Write a sequence for this structure.
């Protein structure tokens, strides 16, 4: 078993002593923050709680709106919010703590500590790969969606999640080879922690938070359990309505807490006294292995904000939304949580941080402004065509009077201005660059660069064939045994199809050769050497390469 003692000793040795002093917002900082907060919530609406911790002390604590519209209860220090996926950071710290105690090895297959998990998956999956979303394990909510279950329409538990995950025989990708966010990773981590500690996870977590002085933080044992001072989640559907809250999984989210408790944790992250070893807390704010794909650590994302390293995470479950943004070099954190679908907690947290730094929020990010290397100019024939932007839709490159144009359905066409080599810019937004090259697997691609946004990549789609026979050949039934889900396609003429999944029919459209889409679902057909359709592959957000075999049982 690998020991972590030397790591903690090293980090502690280089840690500088922390000097505590008042760090209230200055008059000008408070004025800029007030300008951000002003008018966000109307009287009688649900709202939010937001706080700032700087150099180990609370610099701002602000509450606005109602926690419960029925009884007009105001949001305050005692209000408990569901912080959704922001719970993952605490599961990460729990795993680190067990590693420090020698109870687990983060580089070992997690089934060393949870032997009955994923019995049909033969590949080794390390604890670190679960922590960093590089395991390849498919997202439980997307799997439920594939079967026809909507997570907010029926009660679902950790036991339900385990039952479906244990039926999976394939992964999104080989463990450690790629990054794809999957809630299943942290559901499995919570089960592992429960097995290692021989204690019910919610009770183990309760004791963990008590030691940290976070007495109002914890998981519900059941969705029906009552939590004192719990905020109710509201969405605006032609008037406020309460969002269903009947799912109760452990690990991936569903952690109820107060702003007061979260600010207490931020103070400990910045150096205040804690029951956890100082070195452990510092390691929890980093990536366990920089060689792994992605930018994810122990339940936290690593990025940059305002020209410096940033640690953050987003939590979203229906109308419960939360966000934490830390700037370690400045020892400053913004924490925001809300019970309203009418205010973006992410945008609010970023605007408040930018206001304190006195920078425009759209200049706070420093994503790449262009490709690292300029290549030779491609021919227009290589460039023209339809490109798929992941789950964000499609972008088409067309030609008019010798010029290239970007076309997106529902938007005005934009002329592209050639700059150098394989790089063009938007005529209407010169900072937005578009570079054409080939993806590693050889597919033609484009990449969109804007300093305020992550790089967006589009892969070129093979054009739809003109013959009717290729469309008719897709009229088949397919079955996935892992989820007991069947899908049938019926051609309706032109590029239109009816896609029927487990008895529910939807309008779908062919967008490329042997390629049909419905919403975020991508259906790719595999053919044999003699061009017979033999298999269907399905992707949807956080599930990839779900195999469907031909079947005669579409009923």
């Amino acid at each position: 078993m690998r020991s972590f003692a030397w790591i903690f000793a090293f980090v502690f040795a280089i840690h500088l002593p922390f000097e505590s002093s008042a760090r209230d917002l200055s008059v000008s900082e408070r004025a800029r923050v007030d300008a951000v907060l002003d008018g966000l919530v109307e009287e009688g609406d649900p709202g939010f709680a937001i706080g700032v911790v700087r150099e180990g002390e609370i610099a701002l604590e602000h509450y606005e709106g109602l926690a419960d519209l029925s009884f007009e209860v105001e949001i305050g220090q005692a209000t408990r919010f569901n912080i959704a996926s922001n719970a993952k950071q605490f599961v990460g710290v729990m795993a680190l703590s067990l590693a420090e105690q020698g109870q687990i090895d983060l580089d070992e297959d997690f089934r060393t500590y949870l032997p009955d998990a994923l019995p049909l998956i033969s590949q080794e999956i390390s604890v670190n790969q679960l922590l960093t979303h590089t395991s390849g394990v498919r997202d439980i909510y997307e799997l439920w969606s594939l079967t026809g279950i909507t997570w907010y329409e029926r009660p679902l538990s950790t036991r339900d999640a385990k039952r479906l995950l244990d039926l999976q025989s394939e992964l999104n990708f080989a463990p450690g080879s790629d990054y794809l966010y999957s809630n299943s990773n942290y559901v499995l981590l919570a089960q592992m922690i429960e097995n290692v500690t021989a204690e019910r996870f919610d009770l183990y977590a309760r004791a963990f938070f008590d030691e940290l002085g976070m007495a109002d933080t914890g998981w519900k044992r059941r969705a029906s359990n009552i939590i004192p001072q719990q905020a109710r989640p509201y969405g605006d559907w032609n008037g406020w309505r309460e969002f269903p809250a009947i799912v109760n999984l452990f690990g991936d989210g569903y952690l109820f807490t107060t702003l007061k408790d979260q600010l207490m944790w931020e103070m400990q992250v910045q150096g205040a006294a804690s029951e956890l070893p100082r070195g452990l807390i510092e390691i929890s704010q980093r990536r366990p292995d920089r060689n792994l794909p992605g930018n994810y650590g122990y339940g936290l994302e690593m990025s940059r904000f305002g020209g410096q390293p940033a640690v953050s995470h987003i939590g979203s479950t229906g109308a419960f939304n939360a966000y934490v943004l830390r700037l370690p070099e400045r020892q400053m954190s913004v924490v925001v949580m809300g019970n309203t679908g009418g205010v973006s907690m992410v945008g609010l947290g970023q605007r408040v941080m930018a206001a304190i730094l006195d920078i425009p929020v759209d200049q706070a990010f420093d994503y790449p402004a262009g490709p690292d290397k300029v290549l030779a100019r491609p021919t227009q024939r290589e460039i023209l065509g339809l490109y798929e932007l992941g789950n964000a839709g499609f972008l088409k490159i067309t030609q008019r009077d010798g010029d290239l144009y970007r076309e997106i359905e529902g938007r005005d066409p934009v002329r592209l201005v050639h700059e150098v080599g394989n790089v063009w810019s938007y005529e209407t937004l010169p900072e937005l660059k578009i570079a054409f090259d080939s993806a590693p697997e050889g597919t033609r691609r484009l990449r969109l660069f804007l300093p305020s946004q992550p790089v967006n990549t589009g892969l070129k789609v093979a054009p739809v064939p003109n013959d009717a026979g290729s469309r008719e050949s897709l009229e088949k039934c397919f079955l996935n045994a892992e989820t007991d889900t069947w899908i049938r396609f019926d051609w309706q003429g032109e590029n239109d199809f009816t896609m029927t999944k487990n008895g529910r029919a939807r309008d779908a459209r062919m967008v490329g050769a042997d390629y049909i889409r419905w919403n975020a679902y991508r259906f790719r057909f595999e053919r044999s050497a003699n061009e017979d359709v033999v298999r269907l592959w399905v992707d949807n957000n956080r599930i990839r390469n779900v195999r469907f075999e031909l079947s005669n049982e579409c009923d």
